Amino acid sequence: MRRLLLALLMLAASAAQALAAPPIRVISPGGIEAWLIEDHANPILSLEMAWRDSGAAYDAQGKEGLARLMAATLDEGAGPYDSQAFQRKLEDLSIKLSFNAGMDMMQGSLITLSRHRTQAFDMLRLSLNQPRFDDDAVLRIKGQILAGLARSSEDPQTMVSRGWYAAAFPAHPYGRVSDGTQDSVAAMTRADLVAATQRLGRANLIVGVVGDITPAELAPLLDSTFGPLPAKPAIHPLPSAEVGIPAQGIKPLVLKKAIPQSVVQFGFAGVKRNDPDWFAAYVLNYILGGGGFSSRLMVEIREKRGLAYSAYSYLYPFNQAGIWIGGVATRNDKVAQSIKLVRKELARLNADGVSAGELQDAKTYLTGSFALRYDSSANIAGLLVAVQADHLGIDYLDRRNELVMKVTQADVARVAKRLFKPENLIVVVAGDPKGL
Amino acid sequence: MHRLALILLAVLMAPVPAGAAVFNPESFQLANGLQVVVIQNHRAPIVTHMVWYKVGDADAPEGQSGMPHLLEHLMFKGTKNLQPGQFSKIVARNGGRDNAFTGSDFTAYYQNVSADRLELVMKMEADRMANLTLDPKLIETERQVVLEERRTRTDNEPSSRLREKMGPEQFAVHPYRNPVIGWERDIKAITPKDLKAFYQRWYTPNNAILIVAGDVTPQQVLGLAETYYAPIPARPLPKRERASEPPPTGPKIVELRDKSVKQPLWMREYRAPSRRLDPEGQSYALEVLENILAGGATSRFYESLVVRQKLAASAGASYSADRYDYSEFGFYASPNPGIPMARLEEAMESEIARLTEHGVTEEEVARAKGRLIDAAVYARDSLAGGAYALGRALGTGQSIDQVENWPERIAEVTADQVNAALRAVLTPKAAVTGRLLGEGM
User: Fold this and answer.
1) For residue A411, which of A197, A311, B334, B338 sits 20 to 30 Å off, Cα-Cα?
2) The domain B252-437 belongs to what CATH superfamily?
3) DSSP 8-state assignment for residue B305
4) Which one of the listed residues B72, B125, B287, B328 is annotated catalytic?
């Protein structure tokens, strides 16, 4: 394949144009809200859900990895069904139910055929309200997470990512590994899991639904499924966070590893999603490293010089801090040159901003490609959740392209001046780089 | 490539209720031999435009593995009418995304764009079917890019290196022994002349499939294809002749020890029929078998190795019928902490032995068939999914009917057929085992 597929573009930043139907707000008799796009073309329904302020960052000190473990065990037995019986029922009805823990939010996904809709919602209800957390199931999932930690501890991409976050957030939960540590995962108890379910309340719930269901059919299912959750979640607030500056100055942090190609991650403070300059930053990122072959990093590092297969950047807006991350992988004797090229582009953008042509190209791409997100029901439902999570409003999908088009060269230059300070760049390398 | 392969497998494993077709495509052939396939999906005003060439790494001449993939990269490097790099720039400027991928049996190019930009991308795709320039200087730069890609995918990744070592054990002479990205020495040795000859031999409309999925009508696609692809003349096409592989003479074992490996991995592969070379229809039975063994948390290997015996963190099986010549039926497992590789291997082997001895049950077959047939309904939900599934099937010598009839063929599979197929395939002589180990393991 010619390009790494980066699943990293921010969901919330893209928007819709011309879906068959706009989302509508469904409010159940019990007061639970969901955004719905009805689509009866296929007998399928996708429901995506999330809980604000409930993710891995909210794991207490010493309990790192709790949200992740809960996400992996909610579907390991609930109500009358032990783990195997629960999974067997899902499989026999072709119901796809899963949970995962992001840094800020716990998320879940339910996909079902229309003919099994009632049972699907029932299985979701059980997993949320009566999870069993049986000892053998929890032990087994812990083993899988520990095996994953062992495997990823030697993966150079994971090494630089963990190294970077630890350096950027030395004293904040964002700097931790969301899967936890060997010790913290091993020590987790059933009581910890039960306590963690209290993060999943009604007040912090977000729901997006796409597919073969009407508002009248959806409303009672919202009540029966989510109604039993605690009204208010039990969550300790997260302190605000600042991305640190490089502790060792301009010198990259090197994680030694005997491999032929070094993997590099670099980054510094970005913008939060509610920053007035969000779209200016988004456009700037496209020009720097978010735009595949057209981006400056790709042109300078890959197209002109053949130094790497992939060179990219992206914005990652946590609730409490925005970050701007990039990466490149290149053979050990080309690491110094590649990092120099990154710094040069950042300095150039800081000094000169972007050209009118670059801005124009970025806008036509970012507005024109919006609809490509509508590839599947689950993707669209996920988008409905992201828009709610970021408080963008139900008409956001219609407004989004205007917001991109409003960005000016001066806006982009201002953001580059404010954020692109090469001396703030935290650079982490895994490999055996020469001449750094 | 690996990740993509898995996604595609999931899609094709995912076809429809008996009696219903899967993707309901319409198909045409232009006078120059180009096959045109259209899948309508009107949810959003977008289309996927793909061209699949029926040529892949297994068609590369001896000593030139990786050339089809390098050529794929170079297809973005300019034509008589378009400057290097402009293809992707123009697609992006029009709000589209484009990319390409190479397999053992096919090479495919695609653009996802707003439906009103279909003509633009079709014009450019048709242009590079006939007018590629292949500038020697750009070839050198791109060769470096591909070597970096190889380092990322393979040299830096012990499990990929193990798979790469297993290929030549499974195939003594057939080119499936080579990795699709190519051996490093081959990538370094490919000349501009080789690339040009290969492009001229295989990149011709009578060796290509055009697939368009999305918010279009077949009439629109056909009209545009007549304008842009029809003028490209057909050329004589060489026969697809690959070395024929002698019967397996295993069992064989490959071990890779690397001090950076902290989580060991066990793999076992058996040569198996592809859909195209499957006179007895075993490929359908093997798809049902794969689902029984690896279809989820209650599947056989997970239930036995992970849940009950607590020896493994993961365990499963894999099979895809989408190969032009041979396919492989594979097993894998990764041990829990403290479980020695020998213990894990013994447990996996005893499960495989139990399978060949006692077979699978009627109930297991019925459950797996239900899941596979339901998966076909899900497959229709994604815009690009149908285009990929059809491209993979047609690119490996299957017909549209085979894709559309898949649910019915799956529905007909019996436990006896599954048991006959697994006994034919899972023989000790065909077994190639791979062990990935860290230091002191």
Assistant:
1) A311
2) Metalloenzyme, LuxS/M16 peptidase-like (3.30.830.10)
3) I
4) B72
What residues does CATH 3.30.830.10 cover in chain B?
2-228, 252-437
Q: Is the pLDDT of residue A391 over 50?
A: yes
Sheet arrangement for strand A261-269: A253-256, A426-431, A261-269, A322-331, A311-317
Q: Give the model's confidence band at A19: pLDDT under 50 very low, under 70 low, under 90 confident, else very high.
A: low
Arithmetic mean of pLDDT over chain A = 93
Q: What pLDDT, on the 0 to 100 scale, is given for residue A146?
A: 94
**pLDDT over 90 at A6, yes or no:** no
- Separation of alpha carbons A106 and A99, rounded Å: 7
Chain A CB contacts of B156 under 8 Å are 156, 259-261, 263, 329
How far, CA to CA in Å, does B142 sit from each of B78, B185, B292?
13, 15, 43
Does residue B364 have an active-site annotation? Answer: no
β-pair partners for B189: none
DSSP 8-state assignment for residue B77:
S
- Interface check for B257 against chain A (CB to CB < 8 A): the answer is no
Note whether B46 contacts A: Cβ–Cβ < 8 A. yes
The structure tokens 């969550």 sit at A235
DSSP string over B129-176: HH-B---HHHHHHHHHHHHHHHIIIIIT-HHHHHHHHHHHHH-SSSGG
* Mean predicted lDDT score pLDDT of chain B: 93
Complex ipTM value: 0.90
Residue to test with chain A: of B259, B381, B439, most A Cβ within 10 A: B381
The correct CATH number of B2-228 out of 3.30.830.10, 3.40.50.1970, 3.40.50.620, 3.40.630.10 is 3.30.830.10
